[in-house]
């Protein structure tokens, strides 16, 4: 079974556009949990254009009595980001190689070029009992470097898969993801995935064995506007919960 972790950044973006505490990120997350979601993801950025540090602490407090729900914090390992993560101690921290001005994540880590930084940060996470994940492009050769920095998992950046879904390049692109996941599995590295997965393409992606978690936000929020959040969550859970 694959864990569905809902990224609530877009809920924060809606709230911030009006300057009121509505919609509430915490209340929406509580609704998701009531509907059966087992993971909440946030990706706070330095300019706090959606999720704020205040949101991170509030969600952490809410989740304290919900041990069945994993809290995943994504972001670039800046000094401020790591200070917050080590204070909150989420279940998982996903490191993403974003620059501050990026609109959204658009590439995975080049591990050899960032090895010293990643080794230091991943050691901090490990020493504080926080599971680590590295945002990675579908490249089996890059997976071979993950053991050298001792990350627990990778998160496959799935935009390329989503953009080629149902197109003429679907299968070759899908095979790159399958091969990357297979290499990670061979090395004992856990496999997460996220970015532009949705109700249409998720089942295909999960033909890849042993995907432990998918993080979905933008598409899920849009689909919830169209179909209602109760229906959308039920459909996602049916996909990720199949044998």
Quick rundown:
The chain is an alpha/beta fold. The protein has 12 helices and 8 strands.
Structure description:
By secondary structure, the protein is α/β, with parallel strands linked by helices. The chain has a single domain (3-240), classed as TIM Barrel (Alpha-Beta Barrel), CATH 3.20.20. Helices cover 44% and strands 17% of the residues. The protein has 12 helices and 8 strands. It has helices at 9-16, 25-34, 53-63, 79-88, 115-127, 140-143, 146-149, 159-163, 170-186, 202-205, 218-227, 229-240, and strands at 3-7, 39-42, 70-75, 92-95, 131-136, 153-157, 190-194, 211-216. Strand 2, helix 3 and strand 3 (70-75) form a beta-alpha-beta unit. Helix 2 runs parallel beside helix 3 and helix 11 crosses helix 12 (229-240). The chain is globular. The termini are close together. The relative contact order is 0.14.
Ends apart, CA distance between termini: 7 Å
Which overall shape is indicated by the principal axes computed on the Cα atoms?
Answer: globular
The H-and-E topology, N to C, reads as: EHHEHEHEHEHHEHHEHEHH
CATH topology: TIM Barrel
Biggest sheet overview: 8 strands, parallel, barrel
- The CATH architecture assignment turns out to be Alpha-Beta Barrel
* SS field, number of helical segments: 12
CATH uppermost class: Alpha Beta
Mean pLDDT: 95
- The share of residues in helices is 40-55%
């Amino acid at each position: 079974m694959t864990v569905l972790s809902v990224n609530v950044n877009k809920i924060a973006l809606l709230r911030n556009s009006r300057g009121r505490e509505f919609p509430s990120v915490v209340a929406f997350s509580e609704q998701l949990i009531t509907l059966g979601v087992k993971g909440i993801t946030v990706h706070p950025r330095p300019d706090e254009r959606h999720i704020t540090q205040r949101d991170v602490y509030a969600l952490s407090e809410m989740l304290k009595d919900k041990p069945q729900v994993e809290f995943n914090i994504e972001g670039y390992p800046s000094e401020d980001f790591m200070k917050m993560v080590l204070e909150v101690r989420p279940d998982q921290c996903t490191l993403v190689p974003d620059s501050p001005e990026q609109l959204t994540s658009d590439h995975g880590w080049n591990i050899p070029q960032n090895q010293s930084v990643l080794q230091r940060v991943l050691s901090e996470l490990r020493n504080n009992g926080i599971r680590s994940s590295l945002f990675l492009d579908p490249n089996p050769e890059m997976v071979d470097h993950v053991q050298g920095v001792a990350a627990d998992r990778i998160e496959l950046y799935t935009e390329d898969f989503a953009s080629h879904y149902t197109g003429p390049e679907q299968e070759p692109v899908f095979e790159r993801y399958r091969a990357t996941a297979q290499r990670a599995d061979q090395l004992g590295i856990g496999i997460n995935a996220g970015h532009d997965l949705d109700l249409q393409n998720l089942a295909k992606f999960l033909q890849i064995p042993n995907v432990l978690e998918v993080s979905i936000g933008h598409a899920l929020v849009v689909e919830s506007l169209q179909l209602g959040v109760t229906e959308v969550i039920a459909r996602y859970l049916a996909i990720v919960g199949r044998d």
